[in-house]
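Field: COMPLEX_INPUT
Field: COMPONENT_COUNT = two
Field: RESIDUE_TOTAL = 698
Field: MODE = joint
Values follow.
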Amino acid sequence: MLALLSAHIAAGLLGSLPAALAFAAEPLAHLRTLDVAVIVIYFAMVIWIGFYLKGMSNTSEEFFMAGREMTAWIAGLSFVSANLGSLELMGWAGSAYQYGILATHWYWIGAIPAMLFLGLMMMPFYYVSKTHSVPGYLNLRYGEHARIVAALAFAIEMILMSGVNMFAMAVVMKVVLGWDLNFSIVVSSVAVALYVGLGGLRSAIFNEVLQFVLIWGGALLVPILGLVQSGGWTGLKTKILANLGSDSYFHLWRDTGHFSANPMGVHWTGIVFGLGFVISFGYWTTDFLVVQRVLAAHNLRAARMAPIIASFFKMAVPFIVILPGLLGLVLLQNPDGSRRQLVGEDVVAACSSSSSGSLADSAACSAAMSKSALPADYQQKMLAGNIDLHSYNQALPLMMVRYLGPGLLGLGITALIAGFMSGMAGNVSAFSTVWTYDIYKPLIKKHGSDSHYVLVGRLSILIGVGVSIGAAYLVMHAHGIMDYVQALFSIFVAPLLGVILFGMFWKRATGLAGFLGLLLGIVFSATLFMWVKLNPAALATVALSPDAKPMAENVFRALWAFLFTSIIVIAVSSFTRPRPVAELDGLVYGATQLPTEEMVPFYEREWFWATAVVVIFAALNIMFW
Amino acid sequence: MHGSRIPIWFFIGLLLVIYGIMILGAGLSEWSSGMYPPGVELNSLHAPVWWGGLLLALGLFYVVKFRPGRASK
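Field: COMPLEX_OUTPUT
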């Protein structure tokens, strides 16, 4: 959930650039011939799939919607995989190292309720309306103006985010493997452009399922071996208590009663209402990047089951992301056998070596280390050159290097590359659909042939990848832009959620209300963002506490923007004339006659499996309370 | 899946078979020679052998079950 990944984690990854570019920077891992072969075979396979599927992507329905032929399993795995980026894997492993199990909220309450709501309550309207996209639904429900605002915002966000992610991934490859930035950017983007441009959404979905399997195959061994070495979960808890003297690392909710009681600086109200409702529902139910995968399902039951199947896997992801971060707290060691302590990217950058291998500025390095609360003896060892500094975000690669030998390390690195490519493929395939259906078709050429729109779709993938590459280089040369690009999602998501929920579940919501709610909501959200950006002290007002940390800002800003949008939609609807109920068939709850589904045994019904998810979700939250 | 001759599961199976053979082979080679890569922990558990074997077995299952030409349900 890179888009949900709060700005500071991605910023942290990008912040490693100075260290990565330092002449003397030594990569974390060295690949052998077998590892390189594993990676090359992966690239060959994804491109082969693209060529193979080219013949099945000739019509617009095939190219943009994968022919609406996907089974619930394929749509579900693709749904969860499009979101499982490598920056997310590394960023949240680093967060777990820093904040403990609190980071799991982004996988459980920050995903599961929204995924179930999408499957059970919203898919019928998305699916029955036969829309090609989320802006397309807004067009059917509110009219052209709302669609254009949503489409433009989404297209810009997708392409810029894709560029930022591309650049961040290149930095990761530079830090972990020592690869050249240009090499990583060009090779990965050409591969994605080839297989999505050839096979369309079907190719993106096929590869996402493949990548999902590889991510698990490459990353699962790390927590298994880590648990063996640390003496199981009990041994891990004992060691963390002994080393760090705090059991906050194992509690999801217990210490969220006050901002200052937990290391993340969040309050349970922000987690439940901001993250668990607005941000999570906004992402999982309205972000076309993920919703597009489910729209490709072959029938309504499959479309409803896909997010439910995905939620089982989503609940399991912390095992390969959060657990390695926690294990890193006790297992990572320096060459002298002492416990390795990871630090923020700012400290790594301040202490990066010059071309001669010596510290560029030892005073700045000492100051940065002192600020990060590193023990004095640890600082001395570092300054003496006895140990290297690594950042939180390197927790997962360091754990991989610790346990994975030749071949397995190649598989682990392939998992990271696959995660990145699935995210990028998701971005460009969603961009292509929105560009073609919601911008090009209504605004530029209304009555083109089907083959014309397929050609536009293919070209928009090439152009989208090209613009992404441009955005990647722009970020490389102007880091400040990255903050604004990262903020695009959080600015846009809450107003979009507001207008879609009112559109789907309130017959009275009018076209003008939808358009104004979306537009003014985005303006309101952007204003809040700029307010805190220009005046950091405003964070205390936005997040309702002087103890709030930046992590809380996105959550509370989203909450206020959602409430603001809701007020606009309700107020404007009260003064404007609603559409006749008969026109809302297939679009709004209470005005739609859903198609009758064939009777199936209880164990094939979506409600049965959704109940199972709820039970497991509740049990996990209680277990780790 | 309808409309495609080769199911995605076959591609996945094929890739897992290739990776399984490579990793299992490397693991067996390490085990027989006793030459383990420096800096890698828990070599005594022979993770490449059983992990490679697992990938190979899973891959073979998918390749056989979803091989092209086999009627899908």
